Please model this.
Amino acid sequence: MGFFQMLVQQLLNGLSQGAIYALIALGYTMVYGIMRLINFAHGDVYMVGAFCGFFLTADLHWPFPAALVASMLLTSLLGMIIERAAYRPLWNAPRLTMLITAIGVSLFLENLFIVLVSPDPRTYPAGVLPQHTFQFFGGVRFTLNDVLFWGVTAVLTFGLQFFVQNTRSGQAMRAVSFDSDAASLMGIDVGQTVSLTFAVGSFLAGAAGVLIGTVYQIDPLMGIMPGLKAFVAAVLGGIGIIPGAVVGGLILGEVESLVSWAGFSNYRDAVAFIILILILLVRPSGLFGSTAKEKV
Amino acid sequence: MATQPAKIPARTSTAALYPWRSMGISILGMVVVWGVVQWLSQSGVLNLFITQTLVIMGINVILAVSLNLITGVTGQLVLGHAAFMGLGCYFAAILTYKMGLPFPVGLIGGGLVAGLGGLVIGLPTLRLRGDYLAIATLGFGEILRIVYQNWDYVGGAVGMSPPQLANWTWVFWLAVLSVLIIWHLVDSSHGRALQAIRENEIAAEAVGVATTRHKVTAFIIGAFFAGIAGGLYGFYNYAFQPSSFDFLHSFNILVLVVLGGLGSITGSIVGAVVVTALQAALQSYPYIQNVIFALLLILMMLFRRQGLLGRYEFHLSMIFPGLRREEKGGHSDGARS
Model:
């Protein structure tokens, strides 16, 4: 393989990882946009999604598409429960309180799953998906799994964009995100809208969890790092902006892939945080965000 | 005080005596606590496990009180306190274990490096507020962890195994010292500036508080003490790894402060003592223990968000009313155990 082929190969690898970051980042960005809350538990919702997919395929022998959809529904239910039980009572509390609660929910889910399913890593049953490797362009490879990652991410992203822009619920979401007090005066049910936001965000995270499970091992702490990185992706794209989260996730996946390729794979996990600190210093509103003056 | 106008000259003249008296009681109390534990553990009445728990308690007190200065008093949420601790631990180990300098020099050196870390992360990121600051400090801690992992001189992912140079005496008196210094800091004009920043940063700036300078100072001091605690941790535990200072540890320190009560020094001490004792009691069930703590944190936020003590502070005069001075503002320091 020549240099150019290897570059394309790395970009394709980065695209698959970036698709996962993008799916998780969408949930972060939507929740932040609507509640100004970094939902630390979001990475753990992704973990729960991966485990739902595992138990449905390995123990109940469901076909993969059914397991995928069922896991997404289960995680969106989980997201709504978390919002209702832990965050809603704190709407009028200082934001620090809600942030600490989010950390608490995250720790709770991680440790609960360690107790319930043991901390050992698991692998999805072999043959849950048909395996096929495509080859083109003088040796560049990608698998059916990669196609699935890209396809699911693309469908969900465009579906979300359509939902937010073209439906009444989506319009309500944008209104609450813009100004929740005014939205509530216009007769929008803010509570229901927030609940819906959590459901949609967790739905996407559930998809990401099941997808990653088909390729990598899963364990109860698997959500921590991707969760943090997806948050970085959301900040990179401009938090609260839906296309920004996707672009941020893809950029992060590509940069990580290129950094590993350049021989710094040990520093792969640091890249996201270096990007984070740089973006916060240089352009805190992110790539797509507009700067707003803080009001007194 | 309104009930006691200053018309009795004798009272005001003797008032100066009381701080000495309360300081005497505090020192006496602390020496007794230190001595009793020291004697009991030397004579074998307290087994090794209990002594260890007491030492960890002391280290956690330093960590909680120093984080409280930044997060509770100044209102800057930090999710990377373990990173400052790690800096102190690693550099204390490098100075003492690798370069052969005496332990106290290593300890202070580690603290100073951690303070420098506080300055480095503090200066640029203090432009950020709330969530962004929290995430940036978390990122800072993770970057440092990855650097240690890839730095062979300090043992890479395996970490280092320095000799056990810290003991109960070191930890106890350094904890006392940290609490006293931070206590007096909070009670000074600097401390009042920090509280003004917490309550309303824009208003504080408008009335002339140099917000950046005060915030950075709070960061440096908090980081310095976290570094001292880190040095003690490394030199008490025989071993530490980069993962000892990951953000889960930062969360744990935050839990101590939040459960005790953000902004209350007494609360941080109580939080550290109670949580460490609970952790020791539940040590045989490590995973269940974590579930319980997470649940405790959530329930605390939902039902008693000010923490166990809120912003309540303990003063010796609550036990010994005779120490109470008649003029406003004079209180004794006696929050130690």
Notes: The CA atoms of residues 256 and 269 of chain A lie 8 Å apart. The longest helix of chain A spans residues 3-35.
